[in-house]
Specification:
12 helices; alpha/beta; homodimer; 40% helix; Rossmann fold; 16% strand; 7-stranded parallel sheet; two-stranded parallel sheet
């Protein structure tokens, strides 16, 4: 932890841009950066249903610059990246299902906008460091678990393909143009500040909301599929460490959890912790979801640990407990 | 060969669309399809410097439909794919260097237009079969040779990244939407009909032109880098077989050559066959080319052979000889 504290001291006085900074992970990251003494600019376009929410930054709103713009707009981005020391690049379209019904929008945001952001950096600020929020969705159905970074990338939806391209541009610009870039492949990140009004930010939001409302949680199939879960403060710590660790540049790194859990187990834990009387029910797979389901998957994050000392700190019980407490108090800002 | 003849008989009476059909490989493919009795529609936008050339179809112009349009135009494509039995999808931006100076255009053509073409098929003609022209450039610097289809994809330029996405969309639409799609990863394809006025269609065009003009050929480094070379009629045969072989759908398949050759050896062979007195010189790497060079690479095409019976038939000496004869007679249509 001393190592970590030393490392993160580098953020004092740094100019940091957070794309998607009004969103789930971006808002927690921005708050931590404020605490570390950074000069933080948030870029967010507040596209409905994408997760941006002014309420997420209610405690830091007077200590950050908030710039409303879309990362698909190359000119505003070109201006915004100037003079930044670090860019945390979290703006994205995250819904797997939406990427199948509107693939072009997913491409514009997760693929084309990433390329234009990197072009902006190349033109205006090649000294900056950038960390991209990628996804374990890029692996598709795992050939074996835990999945390491060398696992083939054979995604099962358009979102996964576009993230592969978005990540690859970052790593290429590192190698060819010297822009220090790292990609973090996130798994199921959860915690306060997630958009809860639909399932676009992952099944955990659906589970939590149903549990809080005392309604049954449906688990598709037998619920034995394993996943790993990262509490949001652990994800934030991974971003912070990666950006200031030279050995991370040019690499894609897995960010996992303490240990994998079954969907059924997590559903039951949500009901138990919420204590609102809801049950867990098994249901047959809806065909459109089964087509893009990937079975059990969890990642090996040993490389990130080796390079940065990062390890996940918050176990699933503690994390879900915190999330439930948060949504019980603030839920009205997240499900309407 | 009987097997092959049987297989290709399926093309008699088929409606076939060839995107990029006025280009190098597309024009040879279209001519072969006419010979096999297909009803061929060529789509080409004749973007300057991209390889489309009306002269390439001089012998078949009255037996094909030529439709001038850009695959980035989703509405004309939506109309054109209707009722086609097979789509050979060869339209693309092929210059690695251009993809680094104008990455957005490369993305629009090799990535975004592919997605909209597949969306058009999904909406208008999900029964069609489609074969995508991909590239061994997707592998990047090989970890070992020969490269199989399972080799990691870590490209060294934007073109390689966008082709990965373009290919992945095809395979995904096969798996999820049932559109029978195959991707062929081509190496250095060569022969008549290549644009020779610059090096955008690969170093072999530069070598051939210099040899015909009796000028020295510069080989970067020591010239020992190995490559494989596919004569264009062999590439055409791979496309034709892949489209009518059920076992190919949903797969990416390497298309290689008979055996690898060094760049120095090929340069010397070009000079020898052209007989115009030019020499081969070694030169230091230009920095912008060295950055995206990948060393020796050649592929294992055993999977394509297993599935379709395809093997390359034309050795490098025969192929270069034919190419030199062609350009000696018709070169004025290809280098101005």
């Amino acid at each position: 932890m001393t190592d970590s504290a030393d490392r993160l001291r580098a953020y004092a006085g740094m100019k940091v841009l957070v794309t998607g900074g009004l969103g789930f992970i971006g808002s927690h990251l921005s708050a931590k950066l404020v605490e570390l003494g950074s000069d933080v600019t948030i870029v967010d376009s507040l596209i409905p249903d994408y997760g941006g929410n002014a309420y997420n930054v209610r405690d830091i709103a007077d200590r950050v610059h908030i710039n409303y713009s879309d990362i698909r707009d190359p000119w505003s981005i070109r201006h915004l990246v100037r003079d930044q020391d670090v860019i945390f690049n979290l703006a994205g379209q995250v819904s797997h299902l939406d990427s199948m019904t509107d693939p072009r929008t997913d491409l514009e945001i997760n693929c084309a906008a990433q390329l234009s952001l990197l072009e902006a950096l190349r033109a205006e600020n090649p000294e900056a460091r950038i960390v991209f929020a990628a996804s374990r969705q890029q692996y598709g159905r795992p050939q074996d678990v835990p999945v390491t970074e060398n696992h083939p990338l054979i995604p099962v939806d358009v979102n996964g393909i576009n993230l592969i391209a978005g990540e690859a541009y970052h790593l290429l610009y590192n190698d060819v143009h010297g822009i220090r870039a790292t990609s973090l492949r996130l798994t199921n990140t959860y915690g306060p500040h997630q958009l809860m009004k639909h399932g676009r930010q992952g099944f955990i939001t659906v589970f939590l909301r149903l549990a809080l409302e005392g309604k049954p949680i449906k688990v598709f199939g037998d619920g034995s599929q394993l996943r790993d879960f990262t509490y949001v403060s652990d994800a934030v710590d991974a971003f912070l460490r990666a950006a200031v660790t030279d050995a991370c540049y040019g690499r894609a790194l897995n960010v996992g959890g303490i240990e994998p859990h079954s969907l059924l187990g997590v559903a039951e834990l949500c009901q138990e912790l919420a204590g609102a009387g809801g049950a867990v029910e098994r249901a047959p797979w809806p065909p459109e979801r089964e087509k893009i389901d990937i079975g059990s998957i969890y990642v090996d994050h040993g490389l990130l640990t080796d390079l940065t000392g990062w390890t996940p700190q918050v176990d699933i019980g503690t994390g879900l407990h915190r999330a439930i407490d948060f949504y019980r108090e603030h839920g009205n800002h997240y499900w309407t």
